[in-house]
Amino acid sequence: MTDCIDARTWIEQSRAKSFDGTAALEVMLDRVSTYEKQMGAFLQFEPEQVRQDFQETDRETTLLAGMPVAVKDNLCETHYRTTCASRMLENFHSPYTATALVNLQKHGGVILGKTNLDEFAMGSSTENSALGVSRNPWNPDCVPGGSSGGSAVAVAAGFAPVSLGSDTGGSIRQPAAFCGVVGLKPTYGRVSRYGLVAFASSLDQIGPFSQDVYGAAALLQAVAGYDPLDSTSINLPVPDYLNTLDRPLENLRIGFLEEWLSEGVDDCVRDSVTAAVDCYRKLGATIVPISLPHSKYCVATYYVIAPSEASSNLSRYDGMHYGYRSQEGTSLQDLYRKTRSEGFGAEVQRRIMLGCYALSSGYYDAYYLQAMKMRRLIQQDYLQAFEQVDLLLGPVTPGPAFRRGEHENDPLKLYLADIFTIGANLAGIPAASIPCGMTDSGLPLGVQLLGPPHSEENILRAARMFEHAKPWKTCPLK
User: Fold this and answer.
1) Among 116, 127, 280, 428, which is disulfide-ready with 285 (CB 3.0 to 4.6 Å)?
2) What is the CATH T-level fold of the domain 7-247, as seen in this structure?
3) What is the pTM of this model?
4) Among the options 14, 125, 129, 147, which is catalytic?
5) Do residues 31 and 159 lie in contact, with contact meaning Cβ atoms separated by under 8 Å?
6) What is the per-residue pLDDT across 27-77, written as a single tens digit (0 to 9) for each?
7) In the annotation, is 312 catalytic?
8) Residue among 124, 151, 171, 192 flagged as catalytic
9) Would you list the domain boundaries of the chain?
10) Other Cβ atoms within 10 Å of 242 Cβ, number
11) Could you report the per-residue pLDDT of 165-209, keeping only the tens digit for each?
């Protein structure tokens, strides 16, 4: 099987006209055909549609030059169904395309297919999908992470140089770490959420996966930008991330979140993050110990706010207008009950009930209002830290990818696995996961870089510095 084609090769050789894009596309389609049944990255994959879209794409003057991009199946698109890996939307065809995908296609990206996820993006392992199972390319007995597990698998397995996912509490960064790829959650509002099926509207953000930092920069540059259709979209110019990517940052100050390496963190994670700190120190960065005093409350805060917003957003799925409808309802109330009981999986139901409880009369002040106050304190911790340093560095997860089914009956264990990623969503800041090592058993590990709002350019440049010093090769499937 031919080696994977990375984003830099695709873009730079296309510009130099020394590249046969059609042949490269066939390599990727062949890889999907060979390994997809084993990996389960895609919920929808139509090779002939991909070939047709590729031939109709402007590959001469566009940024991505016809590059295939795998897309998480909670982004609306008019050709493919938008299922959110749920029975509720299993046969839903969107009448419009998400702005991020409109931008992607405008810049020469070709949708390779729609990838698997935890149902409605609620989960950390892609085990909650109602429509398929995704496996980690480094060890198929392990989970790829979630909720954007299929998008991470597609890149790690060499099906595509880049992919799009969404991140509500770590759903890009955690699977990126588990699968040994680069994953970036942009600043809230940097990428339009119009056409992203909502989980928690104040937390959701679309972002890239890539085999390397270059691909993440290119894909972010393509999809980002102001969108009047999204009231939370930021009206700021999109930097030319690729133009500055290979310029090392001078006088870089990195805040080391050493308190995140305390009890409950695996030794392999602690060692790899500490080694990453040493690497940056050798690259000339000043390392500053930083504390985020309220970060210990992130999980509790998130699991009040996110389910509360989810219970509101998912109330529209009642069997009346679109989506799944039970055939057994004997009354309107019974129809609602059966439609939602049959259409939603256990984890989605759990979060809807948590949200309804937190928002209910008599409990709103005690739970939701207190969580919103704590969210402000968490955000202030980050902003105060960025008065002292340019970026923060810490682990992505407490441990490497775990075995499928290991936490099936312990949702709290899964929730706690998000402890290091949730804060960036609550604060609305950008953060990235980059590969930084391997466990003794051959599973990837990631390190997280976090920056102040709108600092994606610096995060990417700092990530590229590390990548240059510690090269990483993806595609475990040969």
Assistant:
1) 280
2) Amidase signature (AS) enzymes (3.90.1300)
3) 0.97
4) 147
5) yes
6) 999 999 999 999 999 999 999 999 999 999 999 999 999 999 999 999 999
7) no
8) 171
9) 7-247
10) 18
11) 999 999 999 999 999 999 999 999 999 999 999 999 999 999 999
